[in-house]
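In this section we walk through a basic example: taking a raw amino acid sequence and producing a predicted 3D structure, encoded as C-alpha cells. The instruction is simple. Fold the sequence below.
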Amino acid sequence: MTYAVEANADGLIGPTHSYAGLSPGNLASSLNKGEASNPRAAVLQGLDKMKTLADLGLPQFVLPPHERPNIPFLRTLGFSGSNAQVLERAWKDAPSFAAAACSASPMWAANAATVTPSADAADGRVHFTPANLITNLHRSLEHQQTKRALDALFPDPERFAVHDALPSVAHLADEGAANHVRLCADHGSPGMNLFVYGREAFESWTGEFPARQTLEASLAVARRHGVDRWFFQRQSAEAINGGVFHNDVVCVGAKTCLFYHDSSFDHPDTVIDYLAGACEDLFELQPIKVSSADLPLADAISSYLFNSMLIQIPGEDRLTLICPTETRDNPRSHAVAQSLAASNGPIGQVRYVDVRQSMRNGGGPACLRLRVVLNEAELAATNPAMRLTDALHAELSAWANRWYRDELRPADLADPALLDESRSALDALTRILSLGGGFYPFQQA
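The resulting C-alpha cell sequence is shown next.
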C-alpha cells in the first residue's frame, strides 16, 4: 500500500453570489429566490471552512471563481457593443440567459469533476473529468474554465490526467463527484467506486424534477479513467422527486463507511448487501443507515446531514463528520448526529461549520469541495500557490473584504459596476494564486 491522503479543493465563492433560484429540484435555491445575499459573508464563510480543514491537518486547495457575469457567453447569443451594453441588452431581451451568465454556481466544487485516484486507475495517474452539467443552463457554462483551474492546480501530466468534459448532450448528462463515492480500506489502497445515476440515456423521464445524471455518463467516465472496481446504482425516484437533486444530499462515504438515508436507493438493504459482497476482497463495508422514521426525507434535505464532509483526521482512528450548523439546528438531524458520536461505529465525532450563505442556495459543506486522493509524490506535484496556508487565508480574506459587496439582490446583477468590480477582483486573484495573466477570458482580450 502507498501512503495517501484525501485532500480537498474548495470552490472560492465568487462576487456575484446571489439567490436567483436557477436550479429546479434544489428546494433551498427555489425557496430563497429573490432574497438579498451577502457575497462577502459567503466567501469568508467558505474560507473559514477551508481553514478548519487545513487546521485539522488535511491538504486544502483553492479553486478560483469563474468570470461572472459571463460576457463572452452573452456575446455568442448576438449581444454586442461595450460590455455594459451587452449586459444591459441581455437583461432586457433575454433575462433568463443573463441570469445564467451571472451565476456564481462554480463555488460548488463537488460538481467540478469526477476524480479517480492513481490507486484505482489503470495507468497509475490521478484522473479528472470536468462535469458538463448540462441539466441546468447556468452550470453548463462551467466546464471549460473548470478544466483550466484543474490544469493549474494539477500541472504535471506524468502524474495527472485532466480530461475534457463529456460531450454536452442529454444522453451524457454528468454532474461530477456529487454522484460518486469512493470506498477503501486506506486512501492509498485500491478502492470501490460507487457511481449513482438518476436515469438511463434513452429512457423517458417523467419525474417532477430532473434526474440529472445518466448511467451512460458514469460508465463513460469510469472507462476513460481506467477504473477497475466499480459499482453502479440507480438513485430512487422518490428521492429525486423529493428534492434530492444529487445523491450527496442523502449519502456520503469515506474509507469503509457508507452513511446513507434509506431513501437513497430503491430496496436499499439489497443494494447494500450487493455492495458489501463486491467489496469483500478489499475491505469489510461498514454501512450506517438512517431510517425515514428517525429522519424524514424532508428533514434530511433541509438539514443537509448527509451533505456533510466525512473525513479522516490524521492520527485519529475513527472518522469525523463535518456538518453545517443547520444540522445542529434541526432537532431530528441533531439527534442522529449525536447518536453517531455516541456510538462505537466508524464515525467518532461531529463538528459544525457555518456556511449559511451557501446553504440558502442549496449547497452544504460537501458541495463546496472536490475530494482528491493524493500520494506524497502527487501532493508534491500540485501548485503550491493554490494550497491554503494561514498566510493565504489571511490574504484571501483581505482580498474578499476589499472587493466583495455585503448585499446583493438579483436585480443588482445587471449593474455594470458589478462587472467591473468582479473583473478587478479576479484580476487581483490571479496574482495571489499565481494563475498567470491569461487565466480568465477577459484577461486574454
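Looking at the output, two observations stand out. The mean pLDDT is 94. The longest strand covers residues 4-11. In the next section we compare this with other chains.
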